[in-house]
Amino acid sequence: MTDGPRLPGIETDDDEDRIVCHVDADCFYASCERLREPELRGEPVVVGMGYEPGDTIGAVATASYEAREFGVESAQAISSALERLPRREALDPDAEDYDPDLEPEETGHYRPVDMDYYESIAGEVREILHDCSDTVREVSIDEAYLDVTDRTAWEVADGFARHITDRIRREVGVTVSVGVAPTMSAAKIASDFDKPDGLTVVRPGEVREFLAPLEVDLLHGVGPVTARALREMGLETAGDVAATDPKPLVERFGERGRELYDRARGDDARRVEPKGEPKSFSRESAFAEPIEKAEPKYEQIETLAAAVADRAQREGALYRTVGVKAVTPPFDVNTRERSLPGPIDDPELVDRIATDLFTEFETEAVRKVGVRVANLEFAAADQASLDGWEGRANEQRADGDGGTETDAADGEPAPSSDSGADNETDSSDEKRESTDDKTASTTDGRDATAHTEGQSSLADFS
Length: 462
Hints:
- One of its GO terms (molecular function) is damaged DNA binding.
- By secondary structure, this protein is of the alpha+beta class.
- It has helices spanning 13-17, 28-36, 65-68, 78-84, 115-132, 157-171, 184-191, 207-211, 224-232, 238-243, 246-253, 255-264, 294-314, 347-358, 386-399, 408-411, 428-432, 435-440; strands at 20-25, 45-48, 60-63, 109-112, 135-140, 143-147, 176-181, 199-201, 280-291, 317-328, 332-344, 366-378, 404-407.
- Helix 5 (115-132) runs antiparallel to helix 6.
- The model is unreliable at 1-13 and 380-462 (pLDDT under 50).
């Protein structure tokens, strides 16, 4: 594949051969809550803030599909959501908001936003995505682009995409929808085409035909304000935009008008590129049922430690922090970590530290374990000597100021975050979109909050 410049609107054979997957989790926060509380499956679930009696301000972060049938939507004021779907607790005569006229089927389950928990689940999804593709662009906590050109072929692309969805469902327990297309923008639209648990493949030569009948507000990067402006110009569908003279679009929207025209025609030369270097690497493994015996837990820690260290070596990364994760019933996430005095590359040390950190959970029932290396450095210089760093670490511990262990709640570095809830912010056209578009377009199932808390990146467990 070549990375040279391309003329606008010209699609090369190389572009035609690219296979891009857009993976988008379905009602991610609600799905995570159902992992923690299986009894919520099939029930209306709303994740948000401000729903307790006496609260006056809050917003819906996400609503399950069952809750949407009552008119509850992402980014909606919590007061509006409660009018459409009262809390299940309102059936209790002792509840402050008790309503004797309510029936159980008219109520839903409300849960607070728990980003630490959601990010731990996102980390598991992230590991599968990186295992399925060498090139992954993580857009937010619940979506990512994959370039799988070197992993599959168009003849079997649908089977490869289904492999991704099946692995995530089987190993993590949440559902995702996947769109496959030769371009990022078409793949993004395709992933929304058949939610939930959808799979839509748009093959080379079919992109423009696929886009043509879609309403303009379904075009990638178009929110309600832009859609309204396009309709005022007499453009109702992507096909209308593709067939029009681009000059009026440029006059109305500037450079972005040309981009809208190109995208409506299926032209998108962007490549899937990772968002900078990763902050950490982690691997996790779940047991079929909670395990109390120490031996199988330590065996798994050893295996995961070796896998994480191997990946760091393959990526040319040094690390300053080693951590472990233990998930205890019902779904309590516990993490411990130890910081080193300098960056190292030493698989044996990762194994020793991970084993030592895990001793706290040796006798506890554990349903899932994980190992992580963090505070990564990528450099061409010779890697640090284990003996040198470990010797210094021992000396510093003797002096009381060396390596440190922390609970993740106190010592975990904060995850990076992306702004924008409905339209991802990974390209120039999305960044230039008006604030009105970004805040208004929140009804397609994306987990969204009224602040940036709901859009942390797909991070390793924290």
